[in-house]
Amino acid sequence: MAWISLILAGCFEIVWATAMKQSHGFSRLWPSVVTICGMIVSFALLSWSMRSLPLGTAYTIWTGIGAVGAFVIGIIVFGEAATPMRIVAALLIVGGLVLMKLSS
């Protein structure tokens, strides 16, 4: 259950990061509300997963899911550049996540 909680926490990190972008500096109400609620859920799930997972593993996986997810959303939703170097960087993050999971 801790791993499922951690993956969900990472997904909610993607939600709140995307909503924060859409809030335009917290000047739009509903994206701001989604940002804050997403943060609360994400942190709560991360905290719950850390009860049984090592700190370094949990935090690395959580931030990695958020980083790669935000990268993908940026490309798909916001039309950000998908340059070869950015893609390789994202793949390196995914590789690090896989190694972190295998080591724990």
UniProtKB/TrEMBL annotation:
What is the recorded membrane topology of this protein? Multi-pass membrane protein
Q: What is its main location?
A: membrane
Per its UniProt record, what Pfam families does this chain match? Multi_Drug_Res
- Coiled coil stretches, renumbered: none
Task: State the InterPro entries in the record.
Answer: EmrE-like (IPR037185), Small_drug/metabolite_transptr (IPR000390), Small_multidrug_res (IPR045324)
Question: Transmembrane stretches, by residue range?
Answer: 27-46, 58-79, 85-102
What are the subcellular locations of this protein? Cell membrane
What are the record keywords, sorted?
Cell membrane, Membrane, Transmembrane, Transmembrane helix, Transport
Superkingdom classification of source: Bacteria
Question: Which PANTHER family does this chain map to?
Answer: GUANIDINIUM EXPORTER, SMR FAMILY PROTON-DEPENDENT DRUG EFFLUX TRANSPORTER SUGE
Similarity-based family: Belongs to the drug/metabolite transporter (DMT) superfamily. Small multidrug resistance (SMR) (TC 2.A.7.1) family. Gdx/SugE subfamily.
Name by which UniProt lists this protein: Guanidinium exporter
Q: Which species is this record about?
A: Sphingomonas cynarae
Q: What is the lineage of its organism?
A: Bacteria, Pseudomonadati, Pseudomonadota, Alphaproteobacteria, Sphingomonadales
